[in-house]
Amino acid sequence: MLDFPALYSFKEYTVASNSIKEDTVIEHSVEQDTHTIVEQEQAQNVEKNNSSANPSSQQQLLGFAKKFSLDAAFLPENKQAPLEDRAYRRKKLNELRQQKNMEEIMLRAAQYCSDGTITDRADQDWFSHFVRLAEGISNKTMQNLWAKILAGEISHPGSYSLKTLQIFRSMSITEAKLLAKACSLAVSDGRKKNIRVISGAYQIPKLFNFFNRQRQQRLDLSLAGLNYADILTLADNHLLFEQEAESHALAKGEKIQFNYNGKPLSFVAKKADAILTFYKFTPIGTELAHLVNDNMDDNYLTTMKTQLAENFIIEG
Predict the structure, then answer these.
(1) Is 170:136 a contact under the CB 8 Å cutoff?
(2) Tens digits of residue pLDDT in 146-204
(3) pLDDT for position 53
(4) pTM flag (> 0.70)
(5) Is residue 312 a contact partner of residue 269, using CB atoms and an 8 Å limit?
(6) How far is the C-alpha of 274 from the C-alpha of 204, rounded, in Å?
(7) What is the rounded CA–CA span in Å between residue 100 and residue 111?
(8) How many helices (H) and strands (E) would you count in the chain?
(9) CA 54 to CA 136: how far, in whole Å?
(10) 272 and 252 Cβ atoms separated by less than 8 Å
């Protein structure tokens, strides 16, 4: 943690080295033209791009302060604009940023929409709620996902609930990547419903197999990039059920048919009373899974075929 003298010296250095820039960025009148604010924000972005690849925490803090017009405290009092002016400028910058974000999302969404006719119209209240949640998203990757949500709802109204939007708004890009990883390991039915990540298999214990060590198999999902902590994170975001679920007990030779990243995958029981275990996607997780493109993990598929071979023949 910085003590006060260290912060003061950093303040002096900032003012001394950037006095001209600070005067340009901070000092303004309330009646300042909108285009000037946009130009100043662009200039800040150029300065950010020209900065070192690994800035210090102080530099990052100052960068955020300048971008969000919260850097007056780093200036001498005689160089600070009036408090009311600073508040106005921060509000205006935020509104411009939100407008820019939504225009980017709308443009991206148009690329995912077809020019064919649709039978149902999207709900205007849903769209209003969508705008309130999405307008603060500046990350390009997340903007693309929000655009997919909008295009999906416009094309097929009811695809994404308001609750799903709220959950997705609270997710970080790291958590979104975790969802994508889970989707790359998941199987589903033909309509991409009932999505699940298979975690193992076993045979119901009976007198003749009770002491058979091969009766139960567990898939080490961490080898595929999804450890138990990741599963808990997905569960905390209401995307995956934390508790494992099971299939029904299969008869010998009975087949379960799945879809694995766009390709058919079947499990044929080699023994009577064979059961698959899995982590099941929640309804919210199932809706958001439609944002993720098919991305088969061949190594995981090979491992699953090998490790579950005691109870199942996996074809696909």
Answers:
(1) no
(2) 999 999 999 889 999 999 999 999 999 999 999 999 999 999 987 677 899 999 998 88
(3) 65
(4) yes
(5) yes
(6) 7
(7) 17
(8) 11, 7
(9) 25
(10) yes
d(CA 102, CA 146): 10
Domain boundaries, the chain: 4-81, 97-169, 178-315
* Spatial CB neighbours of 68, under 8 Å, sequence gap ≥ 6: 90, 93, 94
Q: Please tell me the chain's helix, strand, coil percentages from 3-state DSSP, rounded to the nearest 5.
A: 55, 15, 35
Distances (CA, A) of 314 to 218, 246, 303: 15, 17, 11
For residue 203, list its beta bridge partners. 274
User: What length does the chain have?
Assistant: 316
CA distances for 244 relative to 148, 188, 276, angstroms:
30, 16, 10
Q: CA 167, 172, 176, 179: dihedral to nearest 10 degrees? A: -70
Beta bridge partners of 281: 240
Phi, psi of 286 (to 5 degrees): -65, -40
As a whole number of angstroms, the distance between CA 100 and CA 104 comes to: 6
CB contact at 8 A, 67 and 44 = yes
Backbone angles phi, psi at 159, to 5 degrees: -70, -35
List the structure tokens of 220: 């080490």
Scan for tokens 């999505």, then name that residue.
195
- What are the C-alpha distances in Å from 7 to residues 23, 66, 80? 20, 17, 18
